[in-house]
Structures are given as C-alpha cells and as structure tokens.
Structure prediction request, 170 residues.
Amino acid sequence: MKLSTWVQFSWNLKTLPAETAKLASRYTVEAATLDDRNLLLAAVSRSVSMEPAWSDDMAARVKLAEDIIQTAFPAGEVTFVAIKHGARIIGTAAIRDAGDQVSNLPVGVCVLNEYRCRGLGTYLLHESLRRLKERGLEEARLVTKKGLTADKYLYPKFGSKRIVLDVAPV
Prediction:
C-alpha cells in the first residue's frame, strides 16, 4: 500500500485581495441548500474521480464528503458555496468557519472536469476565502493530498503558505 503525503495550505485573510476575476454570466454562485445534497455529493464525487492523484484515497475522500454533506451540513457546521450552470452544480466548496479547524475547506475546491481551466476553481477558492473572512476569520486552512493539480496550481494562489504534514490529517 502506497502511503500518501498530505500538505496544508494556509491563507492570511487580512491580505486577501478584495476581488478576483469575474464569473461568466452563464454561471451563478449561491449558497447550496439542503435540497442540493445529492447534487453536491455528485459534484464532489465526480471531481475527485477525475483526478488521478486521488486514486489511492478516493473512497476515503468521497466518504468524508458524504459524511460532511449528510451530517455536518444539516447541522449547520458547514455551508457550501456552489457554482451552477443552469440547475447543475459544476463546482463547490464546503466552508467550516470554526477557527480551530485543521481545514476550513474540508472537501477542498471541487470543479467538474469538463469545466476546469476556465477560472472557476480560482473564483470558487477566492469566494470561499472571502466568505470566511466576512465571518471573522483571520486565517483559513486547507489540507489536501500532495501532487494534485490543485496542490500545484490552485491552492498556491492568494498568498498561501504550504507545509508538508508529517502525519495524515485527522
């Protein structure tokens, strides 16, 4: 069994740029509702399944997302930001605003493969960080697997700091 290496990104929200690129008018951004749970899980599952670096940990990552969507979301412990194209959720991120968390974005930024490379991930990351800042956090954190496309190209944005973790996240 191959052991995964995990990394944590952190952002100083006091220095977060006020704006990022605009979203194309064909997309909408909104807070997901409990009625969106199945669509959220489908979006996260499809996003993870299309990232080869998740292959060894895919089942665990999808199970984590499912637990968050079915338990923490209805309990109000997390909110979800969703990018929609029509009625379809094409990107999402869970936001946990408790400051003592290992990860304030526990499922990461998820964008369906066919919608990638359009700035949607960057927009969703910025929007998630902006909402955490609005809720009074001064720092946001995210834990992900080393070697993912997002580890290399998305999460380094907005002045993040990256550290390799010695142990797997809890």
The mean pLDDT is 92.
